[in-house]
Design goal:
The complex is a heterodimer of chains A (295) and B (130). In chain A, 44% of the residues lie in helices and 11% in strands. Chain A is of the alpha+beta class. Chain B has one domain: 3 helical TM bundles of succinate and fumarate reductases (Up-down Bundle), CATH 1.20.1300.10. In chain B, 72% of the residues lie in helices and 0% in strands. The N and C termini of chain B lie far apart (53 Å). Classes of the chains: A alpha+beta (295), B mainly alpha (130). The complex binds protoporphyrin IX containing FE, iron/sulfur cluster (SF4) and FE2/S2 (inorganic) cluster.
């Protein structure tokens, strides 16, 4: 009994020793970190000052990181970046990240409006960072993550819900009848191709969904991109009547096409210029034609 | 969509300055539609005074029409009704898929026409009241 107590005391004194040691280590690390931070800040200031006689653009960028206590509170950081002709919003963000703050987080890949990863809220409107010329914007350029989506970090939003809605319309070609020879082409006539042409351009960026007031208030609403996807296949004559009917059943549901209130915000923000409202309206009329029978 | 925290100005009504034509048209159409429903009740209430005799009805109308505020409200009612009808016609065209690329211009046209008709109606509505 007594030996045990003895041991405990020993242990705890040992622990305290370790603790003191760690805290001095920690202190040193923190000091170093603070020094590095001051250093970076000085570098950044020097870099920004060296831009004085250059043409620059001022960015106000939304910052938020739920995993770091000091960054939990959303705020805006200002970055001054050198401007060059043809510079896009994405170029400016990349410059800010590479030269000023490597923790600045945003999604991008192709830089040519194809991958759909950099839809952002720029000066109060959903736009693709890589397709938006800084020269067309009034400064300071305010860059925020897409509204009506959960922010993961800085400019990155959770796209899961958007992708779920896209998957819900079965976004793949699925014909009633396949040609006898497996390798035979499934041809589409020119008019039909022309009809669905615009609808095939979607790059799954989510700008339309973010701009939609109705989608913001109704989580179950398929949203413009998914309905457009359904249009792309429902209107493709190669799929056949049965498949079209199944597709119509998906978009006719309570949270399908009828939620659209023709505010046109999706059509206005779509970076691929897809006439989304027009496609939604056509599916509404198609649904009415299929369901209203007076004979 | 779900929200981890309140993004304040990013999503609240402070964003109304960034609304586009179609969004304004939607808000105005809702608003005017409900104002018209509200007026319908007032309208019935006033008309039903006729059930207690012609004199009661005439008296009510005379009293109401002698009030400046009622005259002004009538101008407002006309504006609301005209906008609702014009934009309603615009929406019917949108439903038919006609002229979708001019949807913003047809909204502005509805607004301007509503304004013009309202202004032109002022002398008639306010005659004798001021
Ligand atoms: C010629 C006259 C009218 C036309 C052309 C018209 C047209 C329309 C149209 C097309 C809509 C549907 C909007 C949409 O697609 O979301 C609508 C909605 C509505 N209208 Fe009218 N309307 C007229 C008169 C009236 C009157 C007299 C009243 C009131 C008694 C009224 C009250 C409403 C209401 C409450 C709504 C629904 C607003 C909402 O969505 O919450 N309308 N109107
Ligand atoms: S429809 Fe346009 S805005 Fe919507 S996801 Fe596709 S490309 Fe983006
Ligand atoms: S980076 Fe691929 S769409 Fe902008």
């Amino acid at each position: 009994m007594s030996t045990q107590k003895q041991k405990q005391t020993e242990e705890s004194s040992e622990e305290t020793a370790i603790e003191t040691e760690t805290s001095s280590h920690q202190q040193r690390r923190l000091d170093e970190k603070a020094a590095r931070k001051a250093d970076r800040e000085a570098q950044r200031q020097a870099a920004e000052e060296s831009l004085d006689d250059e043409e620059t653009v001022k960015l106000k960028v939304f910052r938020f990181d739920p995993e770091v206590p000091e960054k939990e509170e959303p705020r805006f950081d200002t970055f001054v970046v050198p401007f060059h002709k043809g510079m896009t919003v994405l170029d400016a963000l990349i410059y800010a990240r590479d030269h000023y703050d490597s923790s600045l987080t945003f999604r991008h890949s192709c830089q040519q409006a194809i991958c759909g990863s950099d839809a952002l809220f720029v000066n109060g409107r959903q736009r693709l960072g890589c397709k938006t010329q800084l020269a067309d914007l009034d400064g300071p350029v305010r860059i925020e993550p897409l509204p009506h989506a959960e922010v993961v970090k800085d400019l990155v939003v959770d796209m899961e819900h958007f992708y779920d809605q896209m998957e819900a319309v079965e976004p793949f070609f699925d014909a009633d009848e396949l040609p006898d020879d497996e390798l035979e082409e499934q041809r589409q006539d020119r008019q039909n191709r022309e009809k669905i042409k615009m609808s095939t351009r979607c790059i799954w960026c989510g700008a339309c969904m973010s701009s939609c007031n109705i989608a913001a208030g109704d989580n179950e609403y398929l949203g413009p991109a998914a309905i457009n996807k359904a249009y792309r296949f429902a209107m493709d004559e190669r799929e056949g009547e049965d498949r079209k009917e199944e597709r119509m059943r998906i978009v006719e549901q309570e949270h399908g096409v009828w939620r659209c209130q023709t505010q046109f915000s999706c059509t206005e923000v779509c970076p691929k210029d897809i006439p989304l409202t027009e496609h939604i309206q056509e599916l509404k009329r198609e649904a009415v034609k299929n369901n209203l029978k007076f004979w | 969509m779900s929200q981890r925290y309140n993004r304040g100005a990013v999503e609240d009504f402070g964003r109304w300055r960034e609304f586009s034509a179609g969004m304004w048209a939607w808000i105005f159409h809702k608003f005017t539609g409900w104002v018209l429903v509200g007026y319908l009740f007032t309208h019935i209430a006033v008309l039903s005074t006729a059930t207690s005799g012609a004199a009661a009805y005439t008296g009510t109308i005379r009293t109401l029409e002698s009030l400046l505020i009622v005259r002004l409200l009538e101008v407002g009612l006309l504006a609301v009704a005209v906008f609702h009808i014009l934009n309603g016609v615009r929406l019917l065209f949108v439903d038919l898929g006609v002229g979708l690329t001019s949807q913003d211009r047809s909204f502005y046209a509805s607004l301007i026409l509503t304004g013009a008709i309202t202004v032109a109606s002022v002398p008639t509505f306010l005659a004798g009241a001021v």
